[in-house]
Amino acid sequence: MTIELQVLGDADAVAARGAAIVAEAARAAVAERGAFAFAVSGGRTPLAMFRVLEEEDVPWERVGIWQVDERAAPDGDPDRNLTSLAPLFPAGAALHPMPVTEEDLEAAAERYAASLPPAFDLAHLGMGDDGHTASLVPGDPALDVTDKDVVITAEYRGRRRMTLTYPVLTRARRVLWLVTGADKAPMLPRLLHGDPSIPAGRVAAPDQLVVADHAAAGQVPTTR
User: Fold this and answer.
1) pLDDT tens digits, 119-154
2) Model pTM above 0.85
3) Domains in the chain, ordered, with CATH?
4) What is the DSSP string of 90-138?
5) What is the C-alpha separation between 93 and 78, in angstroms, rounded?
């Protein structure tokens, strides 16, 4: 497993770099395999990234977008990642939203798992100030799931969630971490060293790139 680190000046620079990486990965995947399978997390930085992506050259008609995780909340609820992200997705892309409004969430998770590609070309992840990523949070049983690709978590910060699991993330051809803010500084070295005591440190995809701003990087060396 290789984790590369790039440190940029601020969150806007991280978003712009993320957009360039996504666009390049999309063009390469379409040229090689005819399609680009992209998994997207929620948060402020990906919102900024998608605004920049509008200016990039991306073959959106060949792009499939899946959610990394989602809160179990009604359609249009401000807690939902999709509420903010969906308006920014280009019309030509095929969006696969997590079905978190269904009564039987476990069955919905199984159906969503069946919709996933064999491997994502690129999976975008963020990291919380407690070291969580996706909705793989400290102490949740989902951390130990190895036989399912999508699961429902226990309640975390007021909501149950649907999330991709480690096996899916490990299969990704590349993982792109966008990490911004000083509150992430204590966790970033642990992510970079693959520290299994935090959820983010347990992602084992072979090719991982962390793009962080100076606030998040703290005293981490900028070359790895």
Assistant:
1) 999 999 999 999 999 999 999 999 999 999 999 999
2) yes
3) 2-217 (3.40.50.1360)
4) -TTSEEE---TTSS-HHHHHHHHHHHS-SS-SEEEE---TTS-BTTB-T
5) 23
